[in-house]
Amino acid sequence: MEEMRQEDDSGWLVVRSGRYRLKDRDFETVYLLEDLYALHQYNYPCRIRCGGSEYEIAPGDVTVTPPGMKTTYALEQEGVHLCAHFAAPLLPELPFVIRAGLLPPYWTAAFDELVDLMQLTCTPERQQAAKNMIWLLLYRLKNIDTGMNAIDRRIRRLLYELNLHSDRPLDVAYLAKKYNLSQTHLSRLFKKYTNQTIASYVMRCRIEKARFLITGTTRSIKDIAMAVGYGSSQEFNKRFHQIEGIPPSSLR
Fold first, then answer.
1. Number of other residues whose CB lies within 10 A of the CB of residue 216
2. Cα maximum dimension of the chain
3. Range list of H helices, the chain
4. CA distances for 61 relative to 35, 40, 129, 133, 183, angstroms
5. How high is the pLDDT of residue 8?
6. CA–CA separation, 212 vs 57, rounded Å?
7. SS3 of residue 129 by DSSP
8. Residue 195 zone, left/alpha/beta (φ > 0; ψ -120 to 50; rest)
9. What is the DSSP string of 11-38?
10. 3-state secondary structure of 53
11. SS3 of 55-91
């Protein structure tokens, strides 16, 4: 993997990007970038310890690690994540974890494009393109955070639960009872803060996780459909095409 180190007066510099394999089982390795940010998107569930907190990560989730922050991982089995390390002027504060279902359309595709771009021979033009793409990715994440600052705590907890367990059958009546709300009120609150229905959010979570399993593993499409919560390949193919605009098999 070639590093790009052609920094300009803006202070932006994309150093490296790629698809990294990780197999840490029990927080055994400490990762630390003294002067670089790290942007990651995961195709595996895991736990991450960072900044004195522990986070549950689901496939498709994104993390933004600031310079000087130690991170450790615990995975049940080896997985792959998209990664970009970059230098930048002081960024606005971003949450450490951004859940997959909140990512804007084509965010993951743009990250994939960045990774592919960085595999090419470094030129000033490609470095500028890489910096522009990093800026766009972060800008979109910041907009998500801006919209979530004042979110109802119940909806924030529900988003976390739906993302982590999106493979389970969706039962809105159960969720409404759990959060002490009527189904109508829960649906209205969810739409207010996310601009989508609960069902569409769960579908996006499933498809985002499926995209990572398709590109990062050799599992069959049928197995992936079952793993993300669909009872048949036909239903999975239909929903995947609805979100991505292409059949799942075309990613391979």
1. 18
2. 57
3. 107-118, 124-148, 153-164, 172-178, 183-194, 198-216, 221-228, 233-244
4. 23, 8, 24, 19, 27
5. 47
6. 13
7. helix
8. left
9. --EEEEEEEEEE--SSS-S-B--SS-EE
10. strand
11. EEECCCCEEEECCCCCEEEEECCCEEEEEEEEECCCC
Bridge-based pairing of strands 71-75 and 46-50 is antiparallel
pLDDT of residue 114: 87
Residues of the chain with pLDDT under 70: 1-11, 90, 105, 121, 145-151
Local structure of residue 249 (DSSP, 8 states): G
pLDDT of residue 184: 95
Distances (CA, A) of 70 to 33, 51, 81, 83, 127: 8, 7, 18, 16, 27
- What pLDDT score was predicted for residue 24? 93
Distances (CA, A) of 238 to 202, 233, 241, 246, 247: 15, 9, 5, 10, 8
Q: How far is CA 217 from CA 3, 44, 116, 223, in A?
A: 26, 10, 18, 11
d(CA 215, CA 93): 30
| Burial of 217: CB neighbours in 10 Å, binned 0-12, 13-18, 19+ | middle
Tell me the backbone φ, ψ of residue 59, rounded to 5 degrees.
Answer: -55, 135
**pTM value?**
0.60
As given in the structure block, the two tokens for residue 12 are 């932006």
79 bridge partner residues: 22
End-to-end CA distance of the chain: 22
